[in-house]
Amino acid sequence: MDLWLADPAFFGGAGQGSRQIAELFVAFGLTALIGLEREVQGKAAGLRTQTIVGTAAALILLVSKYGFSDVLSTGLVEVDPSRVAAQIVSGIGFLGAGIIIVRRGSVHGLTTAAAVWESAAIGMAAGAGLFLLACTVTAMHFLIVLGFMPVVRRLTARLGGSIRMHVTYADGRGVMHELLQACERRQWQLTDLAADAPQGPPGGAGQCGVMLTLSGSGILAAPTVLAGIDGVTAVHQFDTDAE
To answer: Which residues cross the membrane (predicted)?
Structure first.
C-alpha cells in the first residue's frame, strides 16, 4: 500500500487530472440547479437525487474513458469506451420507472422521471468534456419547466383544453348534480369521471370525492367555479403534464 501511495501516478494518472475534476464539478453544479428547481416544485426526485444521478453519470463516463488504461494492449486488449456509457441510459430507466406512479387513474412523476434522465445526460456530457452542450441543455430545462407553462395556460384559456381535478363534497346534498349543471352551463365536456367510496359513518353526513376530467373553452376557471358551489369542500387540480 505504501508503494502505491508513493507512486506519483497513484493520484495523478490518466483520467485523474484537473480536467476530470473540473468535469465532475460541472456535472455537479448543473444537475444541482435542476435538482433545486425540482425541490422547489416539491417533487420526489429533488436536489439530492438529481445531483447524485448527474455526478455519478459523469464519473461512470470518466471510468469508461480512462478506467482501463492499465490493461489495454494494442492488438491484444482493446475496449470500446461507449459500452459502459451506454449502460447509463438503460440503468436510469429503472430509476425513472420507480418515480412514475398511478393514483386515482392519473399518472404522476413523468416530468420528474424525465428530469432524472436529463440529469444523467447532462452528467455524461460534462464527463465527456462537452461543457457547452451540458450548459445549453441545463438552460433548456429551465426554459421548458418555467417558460412553457405560462404559454400553455394562455393557449388553454383562449383555445380550450382539458383539466383534471379531484373534488371533495358533502354527501347527501345533491352537490354532484350541481357540479354537472355548472359544467353544462359553461359547455364544458366531461370526458372522465371516477367516484371515491363515501367516507364517514353509515347514514351520517360524510364526504364524497370524485375525479373529473373536463375539456372546453375557458377551462382554467373550472377549479374556481366548482369550488364556489355550496357543499364543495375541496378542489385539487392535477398538472396536465404529469409532473
So the answer is: 20-36, 45-64, 84-102
Mean pLDDT of the chain: 77
- Count of the separate structural domains present in the chain: 2
CA torsion angle for 65, 70, 71, 74 (degrees, to 10)?
A: 80
Quick: pLDDT tens for 205-217: 578 888 888 887 7
Identify whether residues 186 and 136 lie together within a single domain: no
**pTM metric for this prediction:** 0.60
Q: What average pLDDT does the segment 20-41 reach? A: 89
> What is the C-alpha separation between 218 and 224, in angstroms, rounded?
12
In this predicted structure, what is the pLDDT of residue 239? 62
Tell me if 146 is assigned to some domain. Answer: yes
Identify the domain boundary among 155, 190, 213: 155
- Segments in the chain forming alpha helices (H): 2-6, 9-12, 18-40, 47-66, 81-99, 110-127, 131-142, 148-159, 175-185, 222-227
